[in-house]
Design a protein that fits this description.
This protein is 46% helix and 17% strand. The chain contains 6 helices and 7 strands, in the order αββαβαβαββαβα.
């Protein structure tokens, strides 16, 4: 190969290393996607991944279909009420279904106390939204401990939002 071709290949490699994508197998995942998928795969009981951002929700849905080891269902505003109810029933009652990918439609009125892990894929816009989601998993007289994990990268808009929402 000529020197110019090698230089181009080297520059492409360096660009890949500097990009925010982590390459896993044949697919590129962002650090946040990679962390969520690994966390859900490592978690032994039921978990809820809350993602109100439509584009990121669609991306996670595609990633979950490809990389999750266990069964999952999703609930979004694009679905009919009948399908949402069916998917929630599957998540609550099927022991093989370990994960619920939840869009912004799932903030109010859901009973998700069968889960013991809540992952916020994006930072909630207000403390009220955070409390609403935690309240879906933590119910009166519940005996199990619920963990909440909030993902954001330091030095970004999300980090500023965390300071604003959580003080």
């Amino acid at each position: 190969l000529g020197a110019s071709v090698l230089r181009k290949l080297l520059n492409k490699k360096l660009a890949c290393l500097n990009s925010p994508l982590l390459v896993t197998g044949t697919s590129g995942l962002s650090p946040k996607e990679y962390w969520i998928i690994n966390r859900v795969n490592d978690h032994e009981t039921k978990c809820v991944v809350y993602c109100p951002d439509r584009k990121f929700f669609d991306l996670l849905l595609k990633d979950f279909s490809q990389f999750l080891y266990s069964n999952f269902v999703c609930v979004s505003g694009k679905m009919s009420a009948k399908i949402r109810t069916r998917n929630l029933g599957i998540f609550q009652n099927d022991p093989k279904c370990k994960c619920l990918l939840l869009a912004g439609v799932g903030k109010f009125g859901l009973n998700l106390q069968c889960a013991d892990l809540l992952i916020f894929a994006t930072v909630p816009k207000s403390f009220f939204e955070y409390q609403q989601l935690v309240g879906r998993l933590v119910r009166i007289r519940q005996k199990s401990v619920v963990s909440c994990e909030l993902l954001y990268m330091s030095g970004t808009y999300e980090a500023d939002l965390v300071k604003k929402v959580f003080g």
